[in-house]
């Protein structure tokens, strides 16, 4: 019972590492695009206020 639990946790950890390696860069790029849009929008609003 204990060994199967350990194997399941190791498999879960390996799956998490593989998913992180595969999807880390695309998700980071999408987040950066959203942040850039938000920053540009806020800069425009500040410029219009002045």
What does this entry look like structurally?
With 50 residues, the chain is mainly α. 96% of the residues lie in helices and 0% in strands. It has one helix at residues 2-49. The chain is rod-shaped.
Annotation keywords:
0% strand; 50 residues; mainly alpha
Kindly state the number of beta strands: 0
Mean pLDDT: 84
Helix and strand sequence: H
Rounded to the nearest angstrom, the distance between the terminal CA atoms is 68 Å
Q: Any idea what the shape is? A: rod-shaped
Tally of separate helices: 1
Short description:
This protein is an all-alpha fold and 50 residues long. Helix content is 96%, strand content 0%.
Write the layout of secondary structure elements.
Elements: H1 2-49
